[in-house]
Amino acid sequence: MKILFVFLYLFLCGQIVFANIDVCQKESSIKDVLEKDLKKICSDITIDELKSLTVLAINPATSGYRVYQAKDFEGLENLKALFFYDIYQEFSEGAFDNLTSLEALHIDSKRLPQGLFKNLKNLRQLYISGDFTSLPSNLFDENSNIQYLGITGDLTTIPANIFDKLLKLEKLSLSWNKLSSLPSGVFDYNTKLKILDLNRNQLQTFPSGIFSRLSDLKALCLFNNPIESLKNGVFANLKMLEQLRLTPSEGLLSLEEGVFSDLASLKFLTLRLSSNFTDLPEGVFSNGNFKNQAHVYFLQSISEITNTVQKSIERDLGYRADFNYLISEDHWRCGDNPN
């Protein structure tokens, strides 16, 4: 036996009802649970009225464990948004097969079986979290309408073709994983991306041209990765990029000349330089299109940087450089206006 806390919006008794339902149950489907307990809210509810249920959020108590299957969602085919909050749950392959109207889905799960989302053709937003360590390569092959995708787990790598079918994707978050590398070409088909969040991983280097197809990208967040150096060309073709949150966990050791030169629209850049950073190429902050408007925020004291580097920064940036920028980037979601 376990407790289900169910939150829902449902048109009942002539009004929208927001309900918090506590239900003890063993094998009952979610629909059966709702039919029984909703009568406490509105005594004349009929089974047919459950068809109007469009938003459902479920928080199973952590004392229980369940593998959800397709039968658990019978009678809820009109759901447009479904939210689960419990990493101790699992979902069998085909668990969501009958929920073809879903547009938004949030799950916390221990693993992600192949074919889990195969019937969700209308899905626009998908957020997945849990302690899974890998993703099936075809996990999103049938979800071409997804515009927002968030994945947080214990991933150390991702399949090279995992996002190839997501041609409408506008925001992708892979933050709070353990990614140590990215496959070459992994974002090549996501040309509509506007926000890419790679915060808090273990990325040290990037394949050549990894971002070069993302010509519409406006925000790229690489906060708290152990990046030591950046080579010229890593940000090539990012002419629409406005925010670059580049704050390595230990500080950059080197920057190549021209590394920012393609960033014609950049307005906001965060940096942290290592105390061992000694050689700043002349014009690294002032060559190409970068020199006109970008403001650079250093998340450190100026005393942590050598006098030679200080002078180079002052020469290239002048008033557009701020030190001691101590506001944690965790206070912003990637793409938010930092001002």
What structural keywords apply?
mainly beta
Measure the end-to-end span: 50 Å
Which class best fits the helix and strand makeup? mainly beta
What integer is the average pLDDT?
81
Helical content (DSSP H or I, runs of 4+): under 10%
Counted beta strands: 18
Anisotropy-based shape: elongated
Sheet with most strands: 14 strands, mixed
**Uncertain runs:** 1-27, 39-44
- Portion of residues in beta strands equals 15-25%
The radius of gyration over CA amounts to 24 Å
Task: Output the number of helix runs.
Answer: 2
Order of helices and strands: EEHEEEEEEEEEEEEEEEHE
Counting copies of identical and different chains, the oligomeric state is single chain
Give the spatial strand order of the biggest sheet.
Answer: 2-1-3-5-7-8-9-10-11-12-14-16-17-18
Describe the structure.
- There is one protein chain.
- The protein is mainly beta and 339 residues long.
- The protein is 6% helix and 23% strand.
- It has helices spanning 30-37, 307-317; strands spanning 2-12, 15-25, 55-60, 67-68, 81-84, 90-91, 104-109, 125-130, 148-152, 171-173, 195-197, 219-221, 229-230, 243-245, 254-255, 268-271, 295-298, 321-322.
- The chain has a 14-stranded mixed beta sheet with strand order 2-1-3-5-7-8-9-10-11-12-14-16-17-18. It has a two-stranded parallel sheet with strand order 4-6. Strands 13-15 form a two-stranded parallel sheet.
- Strand 17 (295-298), helix 2 (307-317) and strand 18 (321-322) form a beta-alpha-beta unit.
- The chain starts with a strand and ends in a 17-residue tail after the last strand.
